[in-house]
Amino acid sequence: MDFDVTSAEAYRKPFPNAVNVESLMARNIVTRAVVVAPLIIAIAWMWRGSLGAISAAIGVAVIVVNFLLSGWVLSAAARISMQLYHAAALFGFFLRLGFITVSMFAVASVFEVDRRALGIAAITAFLVLLVLESVATLRGARRELEWS
To answer: Domain extents for the chain?
Structure first.
């Protein structure tokens, strides 16, 4: 990065060679989902039966796709400009919430699913995966994500 630019110029400059921190974090979340998803699915199976387990698996899959989509969009926006990155972070959050809602309603209207297991599994997966990644990042387990 060129240090002879003002902060306003740096804010508008693209960073094409920067490490895709957001994509790396999304992939780390997916690797954690490999461990978390079976636990959530097993709990849903014990609680609501096989339909609950299938519904929980769908809910976890929607959340994993949401995290991957988020990492991809933010990394792509950061390569273009920081202004676009901030816009993608703000508006992308609401778009991804819409994606989760629409996809879950679409699945529930097309297939027979246990809506309670689907919703609780999605919320649980989102929060657990987010907390696990946050804790790992704060503890310094992800040195490849150092951007400072």
So the answer is: 20-140
Question: What distance in Å separates the CA atoms of residue 57 and residue 80, rounded to the nearest whole number?
Answer: 35
Longest dimension (CA), the chain: 62
- Classified as helix, coil or strand, 19 is coil
Proportion of the chain above pLDDT 70, given as a percent: 82
For 1-58, write each residue's pLDDT tens digit: 445 555 555 555 555 556 677 778 888 888 899 999 999 999 999 998 999 999 999 9
Using CA atoms, how far apart are residues 41 and 132, in angstroms rounded to an integer? 18
Q: Report H helices in the chain.
A: 7-12, 21-80, 82-110, 115-138
Confidence (pTM) = 0.77
Angstrom distances, CA of residue 19 to CA of 3, 22, 41: 18, 9, 34
Between CA 102 and CA 17 the distance in angstroms is 35
